[in-house]
Amino acid sequence: MTGLAAVGAIVGVLLVGLVVLVRKPANTRSVLRWSALAITALVAAVLVPFTVDDSGTAASYLLGVPVVAALLPVLAQWVGRLTVVADLMAALILTGWGLLLGLGIGVAFLPAVILLIASAAGTWAPRPSTT
Question: What's in the keyword line of the UniProt record (predicted)?
Answer without folding.
Answer: Membrane, Transmembrane, Transmembrane helix
